[in-house]
Amino acid sequence: MRVAVIHGANLRLLGRREPEVYGTDTLDDVNQAISGVGQELGVELEFFQSNHEGGILDFIEEAGERVDGFLVNPGALTHTSVGLRDAFLGVGKPFVEVHLSNPHAREPFRHRSFLADVAGGVVYGFGVDSYLLGLRGLVARLHRHPHSG
Ligand code: DQA
């Protein structure tokens, strides 16, 4: 089983970006924690970060050929990108949307997600654990329904 982990806009700044909201772990720390769970579950992982919507759409299109599902924190693109929604629908592979913070407890413009209603699952507000719980949920889902988008 193979899963692509996508970090969207501004997530390369983790560790020094608004630590009171996002914590002090860097993106490398986050990826290491995800890798640990990946190993435990016997899942192969690949990681991708971009601040550019088009780059992420290209990646989803390419990776959609080789992975079974996606774990994604799109950052601010969550709240703006119809293209991201369409890319996931287009490749037809299950994905789980995760956020470090709980966007529903923040500004109203963060309450809308263009992905949540077509996601296989969502995990918000647990910091780094959102990714770890999201990966566990995605893998459980893939074991149950290997081919459903
Ligand atoms: C975020 C929440 C988004 O609203 C914000 O734009 C981010 C980070 C999170 O992980 O909490 O960049 O996706």
Describe the structure.
The chain is built from five helices and five strands. With 149 residues, the protein is of the alpha/beta class. The radius of gyration is 14 Å and the shape is globular. Strands 2-1-3-4-5 form a five-stranded parallel β-sheet, sandwiched between helices. The model has no long low-confidence stretch (mean pLDDT 97). Helix content is 38%, strand content 17%. The chain has one domain: Dehydroquinase, class II (Rossmann fold). Strand 3, helix 4 and strand 4 form a beta-alpha-beta unit. Helix 2 packs parallel to helix 5 and helix 3 packs parallel to helix 4. Bound molecules: 1,3,4-trihydroxy-5-OXO-cyclohexanecarboxylic acid. 1,3,4-trihydroxy-5-OXO-cyclohexanecarboxylic acid binds next to loops.
DSSP E strands, number? 5
Q: What is the name of the CATH architecture?
A: 3-Layer(aba) Sandwich
Bound molecules: 1,3,4-trihydroxy-5-OXO-cyclohexanecarboxylic acid
Mean pLDDT across all residues, rounded? Answer: 97
CATH class: Alpha Beta
**Which runs of at least 5 residues are low in confidence (pLDDT < 50)?**
none
